Amino acid sequence: MKDLRTNFLDHIKKGLKGKPLPLRVLFWDGHEYTFDEQPLVTMHLRSAKVLSRLLMGSALDVIGEGYVEGTIGLDGRYQDILAVAEGLGDVFPAKKPRGGIFRKHHAAHSKSQDAEAIHYHYDVSNDFYKLWLDHNMVYSCGYFKTGTEDIGTAQEQKLDHICRKLHLQPGEKLLDIGCGWGGLLTWAATRYGIRGVGVTLSEQQFAYAKEHMERKGLADRVEIRLQDYRDIHERDYFDKVSSIGMFEHVGRAKLGEYFQVINRVLREGGWVMNHGITAGQQDDEDGHHSGSDFMDKYVFPDGEIPHLWRLVWEMAGQDLEVLDVENLRPHYAQTLIHWVQRLEARKAEAIAMIGDKRYRIWAIYMAGCAYAFWRNWSALHQVLAIKQTREALTPRPWERRYQYQEDSFRRAVPDWGDL
Global pTM? Predict the structure, then answer.
């Protein structure tokens, strides 16, 4: 065991190349080693087996799994723990370069398989999500104007930002794919006067959103369906489509079909907003990256994220013309920090609901995602597109001001004059 420990320590010292690592390591047999005079993180390695796994590489995955399973203890602030884990990831790397928080899959993404994956993540319990989400129950990236807002304000700003981008008008029909607990549809119906349909594969979200619409007096204007997006039967029906934090579950191989469905349900000249996580770098789509095996095993089974280029390319392939692209990467990092803080503040209640192990999964997952967005391993893009019309120019605004100011939308129609 001494040789194993010595090999581990020597490997780290050599791999650091003089860079600081504020880490104190406690071994299972009582030995300890400190790499810095003022360590910010203490790591408890509780068996020789977990040490052997670290030596084999993919340190971020091994540390995440060890923390969840209890074979590794971690003391310190999450941001420091993750920075140390990144340093160890450089010393004990994955077989492929580090990339996004999801990995490439060859999952079939059948309807039954997708339903099972959604059930695993979203049907933990509505009461658990209520502990740390905002009062509108919005489980996607918020929108910060100053960075100092509370999470409730940031989420309402995001909902309104989406509605403005879509230029929602009273009486328009809005389809929300992956509607969650109904936050966006509620906002759009009460403030913009739309009529809506929301689809979800989560049974708990479906029950909550349906009851929520009845309680808000919106049941005659907003329909909630327990339905796969591929089973939406309408054609050329909806004026606008929103998909917020859902397409990560579609699968790269199914993106063409996904946007084909959106094209089919949209009327000519209709708009779609796709808001979702994207890979930070072009090559992050491929291979197995540090941290991604952990996400697949414990958090998002079969989750996949494409790079922005692929998203735009797939949209164009289905006659959806991109109008606007916005990167909200820092907004998602800030959102996740709020969520982790709120979850930690209700730790005892959360553990009583879901157990200690699952609590650790959620805490390290959200903290890790915040770190991934901060480090540009992952991004968040809002892509606004329009279903092309037979006209040479589809209806669109001259400028983006309409997204931020009321009554500033002006349709861009060129004046040919006498030409």
Answer: 0.89
